[in-house]
Write a structure and sequence with these properties.
Length: 172
């Protein structure tokens, strides 16, 4: 009787752990190029920024777009796109990066949170800087609270799941 009870409990523990692990941060509904995904996220967010520009993030501009070195960019990033305001009167930037693996996305998010300079605009400051992951994607949003919230909501809705939300800068 005890063996049967132990076997049933072990089976239940395995089943619970499988259910708890499904639908996690590795499971994302995102697909396609970072340029297309970012365009869709910003359209969904429905917030206007003065003179927006969207361009590839590369190892050459990795320091400004993600706060990482060119070597780190080559190690982690498969593709990335940055959207920013050409008017330096607003501190605004959204960067979406795709990594090789979900583990790489988690590590890249940690690097961004540790190294990105949210005060790079000098005369203006964002309200908040956040980084979040979904599967192999990493989203960095640096802007007003309203814009950060809208883009995060659009990302969560598009991805179906997010993990590791890190608010690493808040204007005091």
């Amino acid at each position: 009787m005890k063996k049967i009870l132990i076997t049933i409990m072990a089976a239940l523990a395995v089943a619970v752990s499988l259910v708890a692990c499904s639908g996690g941060a590795d499971d994302t509904k995102l697909s396609g190029s970072t340029d297309t995904i970012l365009t869709n996220l910003l359209t969904t967010a429905k917030i206007e920024i003065a003179m927006p520009e969207q361009a590839p993030a590369t190892e050459d501009n990795a320091s400004g777009t993600l706060g990482i070195s060119a070597e780190q960019f080559k190690s982690y990033v498969v593709e990335a796109t940055v959207s920013s305001s050409l008017m330096m009167t607003s501190a605004h930037q959204v960067t979406l990066a795709k990594t090789k693996t979900a583990a790489d996305a988690t590590e890249l998010a940690k690097l961004i949170a540790a190294e990105f300079d949210s005060t790079k605009w000098v005369c203006v400051m964002p309200d908040r800087s956040v980084v979040v992951t979904s599967g192999t994607y990493v989203l960095l949003v640096v802007s007003t609270n309203e814009y950060v919230d809208a883009v995060l909501k659009a990302f969560e809705d598009a991805a179906g799941t997010t993990a590791n939300l890190n608010t690493f800068y808040t204007k005091s």
